[in-house]
Design goal:
alpha/beta; six-stranded mixed sheet; 6 strands; disordered C terminus
Length: 205
C-alpha cells in the first residue's frame, strides 16, 4: 500500500487578492513561506517521515516543499511531476475567484472558455497520476505538494462528481490518500489544516 499526503502550497499574493492563478507561476508570499515552515514544524513534532517528495512544477509548490524538507532536515531530492500541476483556467487566470466560481460546476460553461481544463479532464488526469504513483513508488510514504484544484479533482473523481469544487482546501492543508492494488481511498481530507484558517468554514460534501 502506498500512502500519499497531498499538501496544498502556501499562500501567494494572488491568493491574498483572491485572484485565479492556474498555470500562472506566482511565487510564495512571506506569509506563505511562514505557513510552510509552520507545517514542517508540525510534521517534525509528529515524527512524520517520508520516503519520497514530489512537487508540481510550479514555483509556489516547489518553494513550499523545499521549506518543509528543510525543517524536516531531509536531504532527499524533490521529484517534479507534471501530472499534479494546477488546473489550466485559460482566460480566467488573473480574474477574481467570483468569476471562476460561476463556471466550476458547469461543464458547458467551462467548454466555452478558451484553454479551460474541464472538471472531467482534470479529475481523470489526477486520478490516473495517482494510480501511477503506486506503480512507481510501491509501499512508500509520499509527501506531494500540489494545488487546490488537483486535490479537489481527485475528490471529484472518487465521489463520481458529488464533491463540489466550491468546497475549500486551505493553503497548507494536508489530505491523506492510500493506493492499494490500484484502488484509491481517502483516509482524511483535512488531516492537517487550519493554519490561520477558521475550520468552521469547511462544508460537507
Amino acid at each position: 500500500m502506498t500512502e500519499i499526503y497531498f499538501v496544498r502550497h502556501g499562500e501567494t499574493d494572488w491568493n491574498n487578492l483572491e485572484l485565479c492563478q492556474g498555470l500562472t507561476d506566482i511565487p510564495l508570499s512571506e506569509k506563505g513561506k511562514n505557513q510552510a515552515k509552520q507545517l514542517g514544524e508540525i510534521l517534525l513534532k509528529d515524527h512524520m517521515q517520508f520516503d519520497t517528495y514530489i512537487s508540481s512544477p510550479l514555483t509556489r509548490a516547489i518553494q513550499t516543499l523545499e521549506i518543509i524538507k528543510k525543517v524536516l532536515n531531509d536531504k532527499k531530492e524533490i521529484v517534479i511531476n507534471n501530472d499534479f500541476i494546477e488546473r489550466n483556467f485559460g482566460t480566467l487566470e488573473g480574474k477574481s475567484f467570483k468569476k471562476v466560481t460561476e463556471v466550476l460546476e458547469s461543464n458547458t460553461k467551462q467548454e466555452e472558455i478558451k484553454g479551460f481544463e474541464t472538471n472531467d479532464t482534470l479529475s481523470k488526469r489526477i486520478y490516473l497520476g495517482t494510480l501511477k504513483l503506486e506503480k512507481e513508488y510501491p509501499n512508500q510514504k509520499i509527501l506531494l505538494v500540489t494545488h487546490s484544484n488537483t486535490i479537489k479533482g481527485l475528490m471529484y473523481y472518487l465521489t463520481h462528481g458529488e464533491f463540489k469544487f466550491a468546497n475549500p482546501i486551505p493553503n497548507l492543508n494536508v489530505s491523506k490518500f492510500t493506493v492499494n492494488n490500484q484502488k484509491i481511498e481517502l483516509n482524511n481530507l483535512y488531516l492537517y489544516t487550519g493554519l490561520g484558517t477558521d475550520k468552521t468554514c469547511f462544508k460537507n460534501f
